[in-house]
Each structure stands twice: as C-alpha cells, then as structure tokens.
Amino acid sequence: MASKRNGCEGCTDITCISSKQVLAQDIAKNVKTGYDRVQARGMSACLFGSGGTCCRTCNMGPCQIIDGVEEMVGVCGASADTVAARNFARMVAGGSAAHTDHAREMVRGFIETAKGEGPHQIKDVEKLKSLAGVFGIATEGRAVNEIALELGEKALAEFGKQDNTPLTMLKRATPKRQALWSKLGMAPRGVDREIVEMMHRTHMGVDHEVENIMLQASRCALSDGWGSSMLSTELTDIMFGTPVPRRAIVDIGVLKPDQVNVTVHGHEPLLAEALCLAAQEPDMIELAKKQGAKGINLAGVCCTGNEILMRRGIPVAAGFIQQEVVLSTGAVEAMVGDVQCLMPSIVSVAKNFHTDIITTNYRAMMDGAVHIQFDEHDPVASAKKILTQAIKNYKKRGEFFIPQDQKLDVVVGFSHETINYMLGGRFRASYRPLNDNIINGRIRGVAAIVGCDNFKLADDSHVVIAKELLKNNILVLATGCAATALGRAGLVNPEAVKYCGESLAEVCEAVGMPPVLHMGSCVDNSRILIAATEMVRQGGLGDDISDLPAIGTAPLWMSEKAVAIGQYFVASGAQVVFQSLPTFGAKKFNKYLLEGLMGQVGARWNVAQEPLEIARLMIEAIEAKRDALGINKKKERVLFDMAMRRDLTSGSGIGDVGCTGQQRNV
Questions:
Q1: Domain shared by 163 and 178, yes or no
Q2: 411: closest CA among 534, 302, 523, 511?
Q3: Helices 480-488 and 302-312, interaxial angle, to 10°?
C-alpha cells in the first residue's frame, strides 16, 4: 500500500494502486502516514525491545539484559529468559483483554435483545438452540427470547466465574485435547480470572520460571479463543444473522462522490449495526438530501468493516494501514470508531479536510475528535446523532479524489455453518467432502492467513504467501485485515481459481467457492477452531487438531491481540508462523516457544522472515502431517474381480468405481 514517499514508486502490486493514487494528489500533500513516520525515525529498532529483554515492570529499572552475561541481569536478578517470558505473557494478557472487553459488550447487547429491548432480534434460532445445548439449557417448548436470555446470562457468568471448573465451551474441543488441557492444568476457568492471574504472575517478584509462566499464558489465551472470542462470534451470529456467501466490494473506490461518506472503524458490531439501521431511516435520508447529497454511503474500515461486509455486504474501504489514506481522499464526512486499532494520527489527517473523527466509546477517546457516546440502550437514536454530525459536513466538502480503477469483487460469508452447508447441502451438511479431498490429495491441506497489517513490513506479504499456497493446492482461510488485503488482490472470489493448482481448482469450481475463504474479523478466528475440530470429528485425519494437515500464519502481526490468537492456536494444537517474535534475545525461552511447546501441546511457534519462506515452511509442515497420517502414500491400482464387484453392489460402502474398475474417491 506504500506511497511514493516510502520508496515504492515502482510497485505494481494491485493492493498498492489506490493508495498511491490518493497520496499522489495535491490535496494529500500535507498528510503524514505511518510510512512517513517509520522513515522519519531514521534508526533501527531497539534490540533489547525487539528481543524481549527490556524489563520495566518495576522502578528499579528499566533493565536491559544481555542473555548469558552474568552482570547483565535485572537489578532483582531476573534473567533474560524470565524477562522475555513475562513480556510475552503480558502481550497475551493484553490481547486477551481486548477481545474479552469486546466480547463482554456483545454479551450485554445480546441480553438486551433477549429482553426485547432495542431494535435487534434473534435471527438465527437454529444456532441459538445449538449453543444452548452446549450450556445445558432446555429448549423444548420454550420461547426463543426466553432461551436467549438464559443463554446470555450464562455466557456473562463465564467472564467472572470463580470456581475451578473449566469454561463451558471447552467441551466443544476434541476429547483428546480436553484431556490434555486437564492433565497440564491448562484448562481456563473464568475469563477475567485468567487475565488477572497472568498480570499478577508477571508482576515484579512473582513468577520467574519460564514454563510455569507460559502455562498460565496458554490458559489465558485459551480463555480468549475458546471463551470470550468464541462467545462473541456465536452470539453476534445469533443476534445479527450467521453470515452466508454474498458478493461485495473492497477498496477505497467504494466511496461515492455524490453521497455522504461515513467510514465505520473499530471492532464492536453493535455500533456498526445501529448505523446500518439508522442510515436507512427516511429522516436521515431526507436530511442528507437537504444538504445536497443523494444519500448516505457507509463503508467499513478494519474489523468492523469485515463484520458488516460479512453480514450486510456493505463494502470495505480500507484495512488498518489504509485508515489515514481513506481520509486523504477528502471525500469522507466522518470516520466513526469504537475500540481498537484507531490510530491517533487520524485526527491530524482529518484536520486537512472537512472530516470529523467521531469517537463513540468512553474507553477510547482522542484529543481533537468529536465524542458522541453510543448508548446501547437506544442504539438507533445514538446512530442518528452520529450520522447527523456527518451529514452536516457534506456541504463543507472541498476538492476530493476517489480512485475508480481498482474496486474489486469479493465473495465473503464463510462461517463454519456455511462451509458445512456448501460441502454437504442442507440435509447432508458435513465436512466429509473436505476430509475426503484432503485424504485423496486433491487438497493438500488447509492454511489460515490472519491478523494485522504493519507499516514496517512488505504490504504484499499476504498475497505472496496466499498465491504460493494456492499453487500448491492448499485451501486458504482468512480473517481480519489479512482477509481485506487478499480481497483487494482479487483472491477472495471464485475467479481466483486461476492461481490454484489443478486439483484445488477442480474442487473449488465443483463447489462454486473461492480458494480463499473470508471468515470474518480477527475475533472470528474462533470459527477456525470450530472448523478444525469438526474436521477431526469427521474422521480420517487423526483424533486431534494437532494431527491435521493445517497451519496458520499472521505474517504482518502488529497488535497484542495477534499474539493472544497465536498462543491459543498453539495451545489448541495448531502450529503458527510469525515473521518475528520479541523473544530472540532469550535463548532458552525462544527455544521453548519454537521447539519445547511441541512436546507439551503438539504444536509450536515458527518464525520465518520472507513471505515465500513463510509459505514454504507452511507447505512443508502440511506435507509432514500428511506423511504422519499415512495419506501421502500413492494408492495402488486395484483390478476388481467379480466377487469384489458383487461386494460393491451389495452396499459394502467401499466407494464408487469408475469404468476402469479402479476405486474412485469423491
């Protein structure tokens, strides 16, 4: 996405074109982006910070520690390994806290809806009853809202649970994984409790043993992945509708020259859904027309964008690293945000134009922004107040530039339920066809590309990795800003089969699905956990997630949330690859993450620097799992005699037979 100002004048990557066009305009000449600030620093990153060995958890430091040098320990005597482990664990806690606070708001909104308060309703009754079953809630003969209220109250109790019983939704994991968590003492209890305990144990003078620190880090991360994040995704689906495949558009070009452009930024769908409802109200449309606009155009930014893209088909204008650029068009009347990933720099960028930055959550305020507190008890009224502020800016709009060349179609909406349905149909929904195609080798495995964008790293990394995986017949799942980047590159639609190996292309064309499945926002990575568990349950690919030919990567990770996600995947048995980890300054701890965890949980962290190196590591890991499962063996051609043919026709279940007499996999 780099502009001419960061040395990428020759870049022809499709993901860069719109942003470069915008930043090349005279109206954007005074805009400073994250790329400019990275360049202006003029220095390399601190090796102590990058390596994880800078400790500032007390006021005797900060202590900068060199591993292996006796004199270079902390004032308290803390080693490089202890410091790096504590810093890493605190990142897990920070990321888990962000997801947890988000999830708690969604649960509270769900309870309001169950009580019949507010504009929303229970849309997915089937999923409501399914999740109620997980919590042991009776559904027979009960009203939908009665079931929902009990579910909401039990879900809210998961956050503050004080006893030592595991979180309820851990029972959705495979029996083998549940037993392992119990054996290791890794099964999370109350969600908030795990975060608090993690922060306590990494306080000065408490826990200094690396593996013990990481045991709690895993428990904390699992309370996110199998607790708060999974609750948020499931209850959001029940309330707003489980996503189904739909076509939409991504890119800055979704802004409209003759409408009030409001970009919705952040992470909590309650705000975005209310804005969607309010923007359709006749009084809001009439107000926009009085200001000279033809209507109101909502466009998403970051993960809120992915939420409304999945459920409503509302276009996404930008990912994380484009938030400054979309404002630089001069065509945005307001950028409205709630929590997470809003850069304070957007206020400075907006001052170059007529644009308001509107904050809506008391947790997340900015100097220079307009604050309109979102009232979850009267969400549409709050949304109308926000939109009114934006509409009044339309007449102030000056010169603007909206790129028109790169608007790209995407097909989104691939929840676990959608994938299940697409593969087997409504009455035979099943992951069986996916498993069979992995076993027969048409699909070599499954890879997840998730996480953030990052100003310090190559913008096309997601695309390079995805194309290499597709070429090698590996199905790709994507969430968050990674999914947006892949959408801008034309990989999230059925036409992207041209990038696939022959056998993956055949499967995608037969099913009618893209080879990159957009599964939602960063909190929706829990969908991948559910999908992976269902693959195990279907049989033929081992008895735990750790056996699957599957792996994930967050190559451009930026926030603590990505570290929490990575740790809950590893603790669930799925390997992950990051471009870097802030642990290399502590040899013992770094080795534990990259090797030692494998012996405990059956998965580990991996680090690779270049996009192609990341892709090749992922391919090698998938092929190693195939070898371990024994599905890489070439099947011998079998000539059937008459007895074998009679056995087939008698319904033995051996499989279909082609005209050559050789068994044919379906």
A1: yes
A2: 511
A3: 70
Q: Which residue has the tokens 């892709």?
A: 615
Helix (H) or strand (E) holding 605: strand 605-607
User: Of the candidates 162, 158, 302, which has an alpha carbon nearest to the alpha carbon of residue 234?
Assistant: 158
Q: Are strands 296-301 and 260-265 parallel, antiparallel or unpaired?
A: parallel
**Domain count of the chain?**
4
Phi-psi region of 452 (alpha: psi -120 to 50; beta: other; left: phi over 0): beta
Strand partners, 249: 409
Q: Tokens 């591993």 belong to which residue?
A: 67
Q: How far apart are CA 218 and CA 184, in angstroms?
A: 10
81, 67 Cβ separation under 8 angstroms: yes
For the purposes of burial, counting CB atoms within 10 Å of the CB of 226, is it exposed (0-12), middle (13-18) or buried (19 or more)?
A: buried
| Residue 128 identity (one-letter amino acid) | L
Domain of 136, in residue numbers? 76-240
Is the pLDDT at 405 greater than 80, yes or no? no
pLDDT confidence of residue 41: 81
Strand stretches in 36-174, DSSP E: 54-55, 63-64
Residue 409 domain-assigned (yes or no): no
Identity of the residue numbered 151 = L
SS3 145: helix
- Phi/psi of residue 412, each to 5°? -125, 180
Contact present, 109 and 211 (Cβ < 8 Å): no
**pTM given for the model:** 0.91
Furthest CA-CA distance within the chain: 84
Stretch (H or E) spanning 385: helix 379-391
455-477: pLDDT as tens digits: 988 779 999 999 999 999 999 99
Assess contact for 604 and 566: CB atoms under 8 A: no
Rounded to the nearest angstrom, the gap between the alpha carbon of residue 453 and the centroid of all alpha carbons in its chain is: 12
Q: Based on the domain organization, do 116 and 155 belong to the same domain?
A: yes
H/E element, 657: strand 656-657
CATH number at residue 592: 3.40.50.2030
Say if residue 236 is in the same domain as residue 342: no
Least confident window among 100-104, 425-429, 438-442: 425-429
